[in-house]
Amino acid sequence: MSYELFQVLHIFGIVLLFLGLGGLAFHGIAGGTRETNPARGLVAATHGIGTLLIVAAGFGMLGVKYGGAMPGWVHPKLLVWICLAAAPALVARKPGAGRVLWFVAPLLALVAAYFGLNHK
């Protein structure tokens, strides 16, 4: 597969992940719980598929560009994506955390974008 295709899949995964996080955050902000979320399965699937695409396409890009080696700038990006992948568990346990997630998630995306775009 080409580097450009991996990039498109990576960005599509980011869109799906944030679509899922936004749905969870809004539900939590509105006072909803895990049991009262009628779209829980759809939101979880959207978030999970997005996470899978982000990781798979990210490693695919590394394989094409670096021959599978993992440069140092990848570690902070992985930490950010792990935090964003785990965010639904936090909102499920504490629905009020949706308000915090609404502001923290874009900042984490900004950190990941910085490391992804400004590496040497």
Please write out the topology.
Elements lengths: L2 H27 L10 H27 L7 H20 L3 H21 L3
Helix pairs in contact: 1-2, 1-3, 1-4, 2-3, 3-4
Q: Could you list the spans in which at least 5 consecutive residues all have pLDDT below 50?
A: none
Helix tally equals 4
Helix content bin: over 70%
SSE pattern, N- to C-terminal? HHHH
Strand-pairing-aware structural class: mainly alpha
Shape: elongated
The radius of gyration computed from the alpha-carbon positions, rounded to a whole number of angstroms, is 15 Å
Number of DSSP E strands = 0
Beta-strand level of the residues, as a percent range? under 5%
Mean pLDDT, as a whole number?
Answer: 91
Q: Report the end-to-end length measured between terminal Cα atoms.
A: 23 Å
What's the main sheet like? none
Transmembrane segments: 6-30, 42-62, 74-92, 99-117
Keywords: Membrane, Transmembrane, Transmembrane helix
Describe this structure in words.
The chain has helices at 3-29, 40-66, 74-93, 97-117. With 120 residues, the protein is mainly alpha-helical. The longest helix is centred in the first third of the chain and has 27 residues, at 3-29. Keywords: Membrane, Transmembrane, Transmembrane helix. The chain crosses the membrane at residues 6-30, 42-62, 74-92, 99-117.
